[in-house]
């Protein structure tokens, strides 16, 4: 868990706001006690979490596709090829949604703005944490060559939330 106390408080604010701004159907199907607190959300999202990223085409059609997502410092982060269609969509309109649904017991959706990031720029302390989490996941699978992806062979993206909705089925 890499979130600071301030990041947990910020995430809790987005979770509370997401429920408060939800429509009637959301409020009817997601009682407040089924929305996990921010700390639990962060605890559940360790390592790589497969998520669906939704972008929008130039003519307004939604496109969703999976990404290897990492939830670090209260934000989703993912990498993709420099030639990926999703990057063209993000360049034109950075508004995205990303959803992680590992089972019917838990789901997290973040609506927000995608920002291209350079993970070699360690002046942002979050970048070092994201690099470490990604290296911990990918190096055992792909070897040290994965480091080239972090050093520019891939483009990395951070999703800055504007609305967050989480669901946890009570036990």
Short structural description:
This protein has 171 residues and is of the alpha+beta class. It has helices spanning 5-20, 24-29, 38-44, 85-92, 125-142, 147-153, and strands at residues 48-56, 62-72, 75-80, 95-103, 106-117, 155-168. It starts with a helix and ends with a strand.
Tell me the name of the CATH homologous superfamily: Electron Transport, Fmn-binding Protein, Chain A
Percentage of residues in strands: 35-45%
Total strands? 6
The first-to-last residue Cα distance is 23 Å
The largest beta-sheet arranges its strands as: 1-2-3-6-5-4
Q: List segments where confidence is low: pLDDT < 50 over at least 5 consecutive residues.
A: none
H/E series: HHHEEEHEEHHE
Estimate the global geometry from the Cα principal axes: globular
SSE class:
alpha+beta
Instruction: Tell me the number of helical segments per DSSP (H or I, 4 or more residues long).
Output: 6
- What is the averaged pLDDT score? 95
User: What is the CATH class name?
Assistant: Mainly Beta
CATH architecture: Roll
Number of domains: 1
Topology:
Blueprint lengths: L4 H16 L3 H6 L8 H7 L3 E9 L5 E11 L2 E6 L4 H8 L2 E9 L2 E12 L7 H18 L4 H7 L1 E14 L3
Antiparallel strand pairs: 1-2, 1-4, 2-3, 3-6, 4-5, 5-6
Characterization of the model:
It is a single chain. With 171 residues, this protein is of the alpha+beta class. The chain has one domain (5-168): Electron Transport, Fmn-binding Protein, Chain A (Pnp Oxidase, Chain A). It is 36% helix and 36% strand. It has a six-stranded antiparallel beta barrel, surrounded by four helices. Strand 1 and strand 2 form a beta hairpin. The longest helix has 18 residues, at 125-142.
